[in-house]
Amino acid sequence: MSNSNDNSIVWDFNLPADQSDDEEVGLSNNTNTIVSPTAPRPLTRAEVLSYFEQQSNGYKCKLCEKVYKAAKNSDSNLRKHLSSSHQISNVLYKSQINGHSKSISTTISSDRKDELHNAAINCVIEDGLPFDTFGRPGMSKFLSTAVPGYVGPNRKTVRKQIATSYSLYTKKLRALMPKLDFIALTSDLWKSSNQVHFISLTAHTFTHHYEHVSIVLGFRRIIGPHSSTLIENYIQYELDRLGIQPQQIISITTDNGSNMKKAAATLRFGNPISCMAHNLNLVVSKGLCLWSEPKQDNFPLEITLDLDEWQDIGGDLDYSTDTIEYDESSIDAAADFVSEEEDNVNNDGETDISRMINIESDGDDDIDVQFSSLVLNDKSSSFIDHYELLKNVFELMKKSRLIVKFMRNHNITNEYIKKYMLSKNKGRKTDGLILDMVIRWNSSYLLLDRLHKHKDVIHNICAFPNSIIGLTDQQMKRLNELILNEHEWELICCLKNVLEPFFDATEALSGQNYPTMALSFYVFRLLLHYFESTSKDDKITAALKQSLRYWFNIQCKAKLPAGQIEIMMVAAFLDPAFYRKMNDSDRKSAKKLIFKKLDKTNNSHPTSSSLLTSPSPPTTTTGKRNALEKLAAVCGYTISLATTTKQCMSVDEEISCYIKAAQTSNDFKEFWTTNSKQLPRLASLVRR
After folding, report:
1. What residue spans define the domains of the chain?
2. What range(s) does the BED-type domain occupy (predicted)?
């Protein structure tokens, strides 16, 4: 019997099955001396293999029936399984014992491991992370602290799981898509930063409760020429593999690339729709010459065109493509590197610029801007040469980009601006200067807006560079060359003001959680109203709006696919939130179009005579509401309300019934969920 002294020690060993407890420890009754037993030997290979049944694909455990692989002359994997899963003693080699003893206390269940693996893989997918994210040293240390015993999925596991998830997703789509009544498609083609081209195809539909749903049908890399035939074949391939029939497809929306437009124009995928957000970007780029120098042969502009005529106004200009010939020096000016703290995308949509150009290499020709032909404050002037004005805009944009480049790329001026703005705003941080990009919508507006907000500090730096410690003589000379005069600042202000409605319109049209067809018609009308409202504009602003209106007529009217304006108008009429914002003329036109559409169907469609439910006006989607309210305010637009009419249930009167119910509703989904049975003809048209 061991002594009760606290110095006594008892060793506990895991014994083989054939070893008795009597052999565990031998202790003297009279002393506290430990008698060291002989270390138990690990099971032999034959003894380990006795727990398994050899198969062609590995070794099947007789205890749990799981199959494990083992090298020809190694059974370490099998020993580890017996020890960790079945707690069989004396199977581990000496080299395995230390690591195994540490992991016993932190082992997690297989269900918990699967749960964590799925969460990690979903994180990789949603955030676009590298496949080996959870296997990197720093992440591994974090996981060992946060979830002891858990080892994140390696690259192969992530790749395999994503492939499995994709296969399951495809199977679900094949079962779902043929059951949908109507589908609208969108397709886009773009190039990544490493010059790889991709194409995507997305379907849009409504649930039974009129909730907008977007479904990704395909996302693939394109190799070879991006011809319209290749694009058309790709779209058809995705539709065929998912079992989508031609009669289900209502329309396809694309950008203005000639290859995309040609593929959509075949009418194999429903009515072609031109993306209005892309169109507005072209209106701004061409109408203000932000990136390309105006050509005198294209002037004067035909600014007396009737805005309500849907006619081709191309004239002698070449509009075969919607690409812009960008000035190389302008692109170079905007493609310089940015400061380290702004390398990542921020809330304003900035993105890092990869091309690195030395600011000192820009020649003096880039900033030789003359404004002799432009007199902003000449109230007696009744005419402004659009060509000279837009040429000044083009040169001013080049100069503005050079200023932003210099301020951002030199730490001395960058820090000076930050300290100045903090002091001016009583310690509150403000958004810094940014560069615009050809492919980044609204970035030119943001450049001008930020530049205008920094007017005081920019002027101080350029006018008095010797007051800033650390600048070289060459840098001070450069700043003096970049100084903006008062006329230039006024032009910047005018440009910023005319771009603001396009900024708000693009923000509203870029929503992902609500349909935008009806919204696009409302935006269309708001911008037309903005162009026509010139009574309070100065001469420069009025001239800029005339140029924008000219290109708006081309890009957003004359060059739209046949019938797109009508489709937008009907969509706005059938959305209670926008019906009340339509004028009487548009309502009448929309009613005629709906009659024409419904005349092709059975006019005796049974309709309930019960009163329609008019739900209380809920709050519209926040992002859409804020952007639209701001756009309407900038455009000086007031909303008119429709008059109520008597409710009846013929085709004509079903429309009248809708009009009455739409007066007190402001939510598309709730309205049609509630009233679809009472308005079956219109409800069917809505889904199309």
Report:
1. 48-84, 110-153, 180-274, 275-304+384-560, 563-602+646-687
2. 43-86
